[in-house]
Amino acid sequence: KSIANLKARIATLEGQIEETRGEKQDTAEKLNNPDVQATVSKHIKLLHQYNEIRDVGQGLMGLIADQRGVRIVDVYEEFGVAQGD
Amino acid sequence: SPSKPSPELLALRRQQASLQAALSTARAELDSYTQALKIEQRGKDAELEALIRKWKGASREAAEEVFRGVKDKVDRMGGVKGWREAERRKREGFGGGYGWAEEGRKGGEGEDGEGEGDGDGGDWGEREGGEKRGRGGEDEIEEEEEEDKGFTMDMMLGSLNIELEVVGFDKEAQRWVD
Lengths: 85, 178
Hints:
Order of helices and strands of chain A: HHH
Shape of chain A: elongated
Largest sheet of chain A: none
Largest interface: A-B, 49 and 54 residues
Number of strands of chain B: 2
Number of helices of chain B: 7
Shape of chain B: elongated
Strand order of the largest sheet of chain B: 1-2
Helix content of chain B: 55-70%
Number of domains of chain B: 1
Helix content of chain A: over 70%
Radius of gyration of chain A: 26 Å
Strand content of chain B: under 5%
Largest sheet of chain B: 2 strands, antiparallel
Oligomer: heterodimer
Strand content of chain A: under 5%
Structural class of chain B: mainly alpha
């Protein structure tokens, strides 16, 4: 019985592999840049740069808000950034 | 004793294991492709690049303003030498903080019209900048050179734990660079 089960399981796996590779191929055809890793790494790097420079900006503007005794959102506005940026 | 698995059964088990591994690999690849497609289709990178430029510009402007305030304070502390002394006392005294903030908090009451706690040294960011200085030998020479140059933007950024590359400041040229 276990041989039959194994054969059934193997057939299912083969089907799933084929389906997954098919999906990947369909997705690949829609991509502008075939180098998937490059696209993903660049995106992650940009996210990191964005978070870092935003932290720096928020920190500096926090110091200015402290210095002037005003709300930080007022300082943001003056320096041309919105809270959601 | 339980019967030994047949060669056929062993072969099938091996095949199942290798197919399972192949399926995991195929799924991981599909995930990467799907993620890449999402990134391309949402055009988020262009938006991120614009936000990075925006925050960088704003951060530089803000750094210039903070620097103007801090430089006055450091000059009143006797320049870089006085600032370094204050830093050392600070380190020996308690926790982090900025030498120039201490002066601000102490001298700020009414002396130049700034109210109580004009301390521009919020505890944002543990300061590291000073740690690397003042340990004799090479550091001693570096300190003297720095004292000649006076208090500079890179010193302030360092004391605020801001990496020069992140905000784009060239220490040699003493200016913002892209």
